Amino acid sequence: MAKKMANKGMEYCTLDNATTLDAARQDPVDFVRGMDRAIIDEIQRAPELLLAIKESADTDQRPGRFLLTGSANLMTLPRVADSLAGRMEVVRLLPLAQSEIRTADSSFLRDAFQNEAKAGEPIAGDDLMAAVLAGGYPEALGRKTLSRRQD
Q1: Going residue by residue through the chain (151 aa), what tens digit of pLDDT does each one get?
Q2: Measuring CA to CA, how many Å separate 55 from each of 29, 34, 87, 115?
Q3: Order of all β-strands in the sheet with 38-41
């Protein structure tokens, strides 16, 4: 999802890349300088960036300049120097819905608000068990066998 947003005019960098991570850690202020709108993935790998992002956000207060993603709760990390209070909103993503997994357009919410909600195709028996065990996270869904998904 973040990469799709990057294709719409936002710079994308991932701190999974060793060179990018090293640059972010060596000089956080310079790393953030010049970023107009940016997605920084796996931000928990370089919490020292938060002060530089705070300074940048205080200088240029346009909302939505930075999208910080990661697989860890930033506020629980021991090296986090600042909470970005008042400058950051945390959005926790849920697993994908079955309509998203099946790549079908879902009109459930729109229909529900119009009091016309209809159930989709039901899943039962072995198919239901397979859907439950597969989960709803993209990484797990991409794994073909049950044992790989469980790993």
Answers
A1: 777 767 777 889 999 999 999 999 999 999 999 898 899 999 889 988 988 998 998 898 888 888 888 876 666 555 555 556 666 667 777 777 777 777 666 666 666 677 765 666 778 898 888 888 887 877 778 887 878 877 7
A2: 9, 12, 10, 48
A3: 11-14, 38-41, 66-69
Q: Is-contact 43 70, C-beta < 8 A?
A: yes
Cβ 87 vs Cβ 54: under 8 Å: yes
* Coil, strand or helix at 137: coil
Q: What is the rounded distance in angstroms from the CA atom of residue 112 to the CA atom of residue 74?
A: 36
Report how far residue 88's alpha carbon sits from residue 61's, in angstroms, rounded to the nearest whole number: 12
3-state secondary structure 19-82: HHHHHHHHCHHHHHCCCCCEEEECHHHCCCHHHHHHHHHHHCCCCCCEEEECCCCHHHCCCCCC
pLDDT, position 73: 65
Rg (CA), the chain: 20
Task: Give how far Cα 28 sits from Cα of 55, 82, 143, Å.
Answer: 11, 14, 36
